[in-house]
Amino acid sequence: MTPGMDRARLLRRAGIPVAAAAMLGGAAHAASPQGALRGHPRWRFTFINHATTNPFFVPTRYGIADAAAFFGVASEWAGSERSDVGEMAGAMRRAID
């Protein structure tokens, strides 16, 4: 990434060629990532992890947040801080509900 370029700016710039290709291909309604999801309810993704506070997963959390913002969907990071199976199962039940 170049100096002065944050992730959000990079994602916006990367989306321009995709949008142009979609419009040239006759799919003007899909010119934005949100256009590809047209006709659907607002999507919500929950990511269940066995170690929610482990620094190893920080890039994963940023990637999830970036993808959710790019596509206009909601996301949640849940699971267990201590790899407790009961906590992970509870998080999964809440996500499904």
Largest sheet: 2 strands, parallel
The neighbouring-strand order within the major sheet is 1-2
Gap between N and C termini: 39 Å
Task: Write down the domain tally.
Answer: 2
Mean pLDDT comes to: 79
Q: State the helix count.
A: 4
> What Rg is obtained from the alpha carbons, in whole angstroms?
17 Å
Helix % is 40-55%
Strand fraction: 5-15%
Shape: flat
The topology string of helices and strands comes to HHEHEH
Poorly predicted regions: 26-30
Content-based structural category: alpha+beta
Q: How many individual β-strands?
A: 2
Summarize the structure.
The protein is an alpha+beta fold and 97 residues long. The chain contains four helices and two strands, in the order ααβαβα.
